[in-house]
Amino acid sequence: MNIAVVGGGKPCRELMEVVARHDFQEMHPRIVAVAEADPTAPGVVTAREQGLFITDDYNDFFKRPDVDLIIELTDSQDTYNDILRKKKSRVRAISSATARLFWEIGRLATMQKKADQQLHEARAMYHALINDLLEEEELLIIACNYQILDANDTLLKKLGRTREDVIGRRCYEITHHQGTPCSGEDHPCPL
Predict the structure, then answer these.
(1) Which of 5, 97, 159, 174 is most buried, judged by most C-beta within 10 A?
(2) What is the DSSP code (8-state) at residue 150?
């Protein structure tokens, strides 16, 4: 898919960078042209470095047979409406508002992917901490309501239980086989 961009500002440059570094699975977008009156605009500078077609009049795009999509990044509804009127029927057009929406969706997806990776790494670190670093200690992680949240492998071996057996149960049920929390001077509740 060959893309022509109207507006050579920072959003244009950012779009060009994303297209250049992303490995697209189904679509293969390629920016082929930029329209901008300011020759020093960031997108124009990048387009010049890449050897792309640069013009100060987006009407030049309508003469090009290789343009499949025009993305308007000027925030001008009049410009977008003009593009819709003049473009060939096979050419698609996206307004700057729609482009921002897709940009935000992509950013959120990237943030979610990073958060998932960080969570995976934190879980691995947690597992290593309670099982490898503290392997000599019997460790039980308990909520304020006596519910077992986790236990390390050392304690599970001692109890002859699996993690699935103990998580969600009450600590006094598992460690002392009682129906109520530990109490009294001889057996105070450690929680």
Answers:
(1) 5
(2) E
